[in-house]
Design goal:
5-stranded mixed β-sheet; alpha+beta; 15 helices; binds adenosine-5'-triphosphate; 8-stranded mixed β-sheet; binds magnesium ion; elongated
Length: about 425
């Protein structure tokens, strides 16, 4: 036997036992976001490397060390998308959908980052992203957050996640803060972790994110971003908080929340959970009014977020929140014995699908002994098994076995649909 080819590390198959949960989550999200008027956009998995360098930012974790970048046969540098916002802006702007217009968009699909795989962190993972363009006021930030709260409620997750909120101000206020932060931290340079030492020059805001204990200790007395926030961003933030309060969406202001991507300004937020260990953030986003222009388009405000699908599924699984109706099931299993009954079983199956009940009807394929077929019926988990042999066919009937009680009833072939409709209602 030749050696089997294995999947790439950190890139997972979604197997039949799990795919119904994925479909349930995707369906629920689509229902909620479309209910707020968001339309789906689909863009390629591969883009010019330049898009992410310029869009996400050269000194971010993603661009510095996580991208899957390769040259295609023409020598052009391409990258498997590590996130969706830059691509979404590229696609919408290229189609002329952004400048001077309001767009509410969402997307879903795989993203790729070269990270150390662990629970809730993979190299191919999936995001559902929502982006709103052309609206500069805090009411749209609030709409997005309220929409996510509705989604958590629908999924049964609301009490298991917490909203963290911050404002990181305009670029000008961040620049003043960065200068003050660098001046302060430079005095303690040797006591910072090596990543943070490097970030002093490249991306000092990210030092606030450091998990290193010594760095965190030094940060305790560092200047606070809060004190540098400009008036415009403060007014924006206050109004956002007010709308959330009025709508009973609780939040915690986390002054340390800066987010890892360069394009954010003003609002940033994360929904976090205590159930997933270090991979605690299930949804993250913020405002990015400068991004469209940074990517060569005409200035258009934007705000959005992305959810990590794998983390949400882990959460639903762990908390046992997947409703039974979302799991794959068999309603009716059909067993037939002999050539003519086999032919008739097709008609019976199609007749059951013609009604409006949306049943899952499985025909036993490939024949087999009665005993064997009944074993398969049992294993399928079907509610009812229909049995069609020569005798039944000659009388124009079939046997209906209720698999939960073992009771068997004879029923005219024309009446099976009606009979089952009544039974399923019980
Ligand atoms: P983290 O701090 O966990 O690395 P991030 O800030 O890099 O997250 P974003 O770029 O904001 O993440 O992506 C939005 C969401 O996508 C995250 O909150 C998370 O739920 C999910 N996500 C990000 N990276 C991964 C990954 N490698 N595997 C699985 N989910 C991920
Ligand atoms: Mg990351």
């Amino acid at each position: 036997m030749s050696r089997k080819v294995q999947a790439i590390r950190g890139m997972n198959d979604i197997l039949p036992g799990q795919s119904s949960i994925w479909q349930y989550l995707e369906r629920t999200v689509a229902d909620v976001v479309q209910g707020y008027g968001y339309q789906q956009i689909r863009f390629p998995v591969v883009e010019s490397t330049d898009l992410f360098k310029r869009g996400v930012g050269e000194s971010t974790d993603i661009v510095e060390k996580e991208m899957y970048t390769f040259n295609d046969r023409n020598g052009e540098s391409l990258t498997l998308r590590p996130e969706g916002t830059a691509s979404c802006v590229r696609a919408a702007d290229q189609a002329g959908l952004l400048f001077n217009q309001v767009q509410r968009l969402w997307y879903t699909g795989p993203m790729f980052r070269y990270e150390r795989p662990q629970k809730g962190r993979y190299r191919q993972f999936h995001q559902i992203g929502v982006e709103a363009f052309g609206m500069a006021t805090p009411d749209i930030d609030a709409e997005l957050i309220i929409l996510t709260a509705r989604l958590w409620k629908k999924l049964g997750l609301l009490e298991h996640v917490e909203l963290q909120l911050n404002t990181i101000g305009l670029a000008s206020s961040r620049d003043l803060f960065k200068a003050a932060l660098v001046a302060y931290l430079s005095e303690f340079k040797d006591q910072l972790d090596t990543d943070s030492q490097r970030r002093l020059d490249t991306n000092p805001l990210r030092i606030l994110d450091s998990k290193d204990a010594s760095t965190q200790r030094i940060l305790e007395n560092a200047p606070s971003l809060e004190d540098f926030i400009d008036e415009e961003s403060q007014v924006h933030f206050d109004r956002l908080k007010q709308i959330l309060e009025e709508n009973n969406v609780p939040f915690t202001v986390n002054n340390g929340l800066v987010r890892g991507l360069d394009y954010y300004g003003k609002t940033v937020f994360e929904w976090v959970t205590t159930h997933l260990g270090a991979q605690a953030t299930v949804c993250a986003g913020g405002r990015y009014d400068g991004l469209v222009e940074q990517l060569g388009g005409r200035s258009t405000p934007g705000v959005g977020f992305a959810m990590g699908v794998e983390r949400l599924i882990l959460l639903l699984d762990e908390l046992d929140l997947v409703p039974e109706s979302a799991q794959a099931r068999v309603d009716v299993f059909i067993v037939s014995l002999g050539d003519a009954p086999e032919l008739a079983s097709f008609k019976l199956a199609e007749q059951l699908k013609d009604n409006e009940n949306d049943w899952t009807v499985l025909r036993q394929c490939g024949g087999g002994s009665f005993k064997n077929q009944m074993k398969k019926a049992d294993k399928s988990g079907a509610r009812f098994t229909l049995i069609l042999g020569e005798d039944e066919l000659s009388k124009g009937v079939c046997q209906i076995k209720d698999m939960s009680t073992g009771m068997q009833t004879e029923c005219g072939l024309d009446l099976v649909s009606n009979y089952l409709t009544q039974e399923f209602k019980k």
